[in-house]
Structure prediction request, 261 residues.
Amino acid sequence: MIKQTSVETAAHSDDTKNIQHLASIPKHIAIIMDGNNRYATARAMPKGQGHVMGKDALDPIVEYCLQVGIKVLTVFAFSSENWQRPAEEVALLMRLLTATIYEQMPRMHKYHIRLRFIGDRSQLAEDLRDLMADAEAKTAHFDAMTLVIAISYGGQWDIANAARQLAQQVESGQLSAEQVNETQMNAYMQLGDLPAVDMLIRTGGEYRISNFLLWQSAYAELFFTDTLWPQFDATELAMMLEQFAQRQRRFGKTSEQIESC
Ligand code: M2E
Prediction:
């Protein structure tokens, strides 16, 4: 029986406490937090309100992941494609991102969470970039969990970025073209130092990866739910973890090979 902690709320305690019996717990969960705008529209709320609600939905998920021993949680806060949204929405998201990073700092200290950001920082305002660097530096020594926030991130950008750096190594003679392989690529990919994504969740009812962690999710178990992100909770995540443990992870092997291990 898992020890009840203060982070657990009465609302989900019954459904989520018995997790220790599971055969396997993912090391790294990645989430595409989709459905904020539809949540607001369905409730006749102002457009941006969905993102505000969405921001608050992450806290209980982080606490639950900590509680069950997930080592890395990566969330897609702002994609490289999101720059094409209406200017007011982009501006709101940038304000929310800044406010959220400030707000989250005491929680990172309380729970010993290391905060990291991935994505193309060159597109971001300087004050946001400074805040991100500062948040990373101040939490770099924490080891309970790593919370990765993807901002201006795209999976293809990430792959091209790694390829360009390897090409520069080849150009300067530090590496031969023959030496370029998956291990070399991985070293230049974002999160190359962390375990691969084992569980990729998308909320909001779309069945796409949408240029999220393409390389890092090569062997991830995929989970899709119609639940809009502001309504996603630890109870639903617990059910997904239950399924994750049950799915046979083949990694390209036959079921006979798996069963004989
Ligand atoms: C997030 C950002 O859509 C985004 C608006 C801002 C908050 N958010 C959703 C995030 O994903 C930064 C931190 Cl530190 C935590 C969450």
Remarks:
- The CA atoms of residues 23 and 253 lie 19 Å apart.
- Residues 51, 54-55, 58, 75, 77, 93, 96-97, 100-101, 104, 149 surround M2E (CB under 6 Å).
- The chain has one domain: 3-11+25-154+192-247.
- Residues 1-13 have pLDDT under 50 and may be disordered.
